[in-house]
Write a structure and sequence with these properties.
The chain is an alpha/beta fold. The chain contains eleven helices and eight strands. It has a single domain, classed as TIM Barrel.
């Protein structure tokens, strides 16, 4: 379903989808978000507003998404289940729909131990699948999970995450469940091993999953060898081959090399059967996302 989403309409029209991350500020200075968003303006179909990445406190994705709408940029609002019960989650979905947010990326969320508040209650009333079901129920039947009817439409284009590096048995069953729960698109964890990713796509096809949703391959520009080692050791879903780290270490300019690696990976994966888009996971490094898209000669 596209549900009034320009991103969804592009998917329905068979266009190659382009999205990229922005990171809201750790504070109230919206200009820090706007500068990232302006860098990506007219370069992507939609801009993904992260929600407390790495379990660190930042301005919420809902506020960031509303700000992007105000600036004329289509957002993808991340909705993270960690630390919130089903009342809070469904309330945020209603607020998002009422204020014009049409794209949701439904995530379980990073463990609180990763961030600066490890003593936080690790509440998990819904996981990503439960959240997808709740959002899908809102858009198709106009009801909450307790059966109560809602007023107005919730025309969501629903997304979920996929990890090419988890075991086949676990991840393919999880993808099937997410599709049945209402996911329209999948956004993968970052790809650094194109041949391994190709094998994953072949297995997706063998399991009858490829082609049932839009599939955006995650592309992550690395700032340097140190950040690569940190991400690979601390962040679930990030798998970076040692050869990539060594290449960064041996580069004269590590950040420039990180962008070049991202471009090379993107050139390979975007031509693979079943890949219908790219998601540039640049976080607050919007300039890198823009350079990658320019090098690939891609635009909406």
């Amino acid at each position: 379903m596209s549900g009034g989403s320009a991103l969804g309409e592009a998917a329905a029209a068979g266009k190659f989808l382009l999205t990229a991350d922005v990171t809201p500020p750790r504070g109230t200075v919206l200009q820090l978000l706007k500068s990232q968003a302006d860098t990506l303006r007219n370069r992507v179909h939609a801009v993904n507003v992260t929600e407390n990445p790495g379990a660190s406190v930042r301005m919420c994705s809902l506020a960031g998404s509303i700000a992007l709408l105000k600036w004329g940029i289509e957002p993808v609002m991340q909705v993270v289940c960690r630390g919130r019960n089903r009342l809070a989650l469904q309330s945020d979905l209603l607020g998002a729909a009422g204020l014009g947010v049409r794209n949701l990326l439904c995530l379980t969320g990073d463990e609180v131990a990763l961030g600066g508040h490890p003593v936080s209650a690790n509440l998990l009333d819904f996981d990503a699948v439960g959240l997808l079901r709740a959002a899908h129920l809102m858009r198709t039947e106009g009801r909450l999970t307790d059966g109560e009817e809602i007023q107005g439409a919730c025309d969501f284009f629903l997304g979920a995450a996929a990890d090419p590096y988890l075991s086949v048995e676990h991840e393919f069953g999880r993808i099937e469940t997410k599709l049945q729960a209402g996911a329209d698109f999948l956004q993968t964890q970052p790809v650094f091993d194109p041949e391994g990713f190709r094998a994953w796509l072949v297995a997706l096809e063998a399991h009858g999953l490829l082609g049932r949703m839009s599939l955006l391959a995650g592309i992550l520009p690395l700032r340097g060898a140190g950040s690569a080692r940190y991400l690979a050791s601390r962040v679930p879903g990030v798998n970076i081959p040692e050869r990539v780290v060594k290449r960064l270490e041996n580069a004269a300019a590590e950040a420039a090399e990180g962008i070049e690696i991202a471009v090379e990976v993107a050139r390979e994966v975007m031509l693979m059967p079943g890949v219908t888009g790219l998601h540039i996971m640049a976080g607050g490094w919007a300039e890198a996302a823009s350079l990658i898209l320019e090098a690939l000669a891609l635009a909406p």
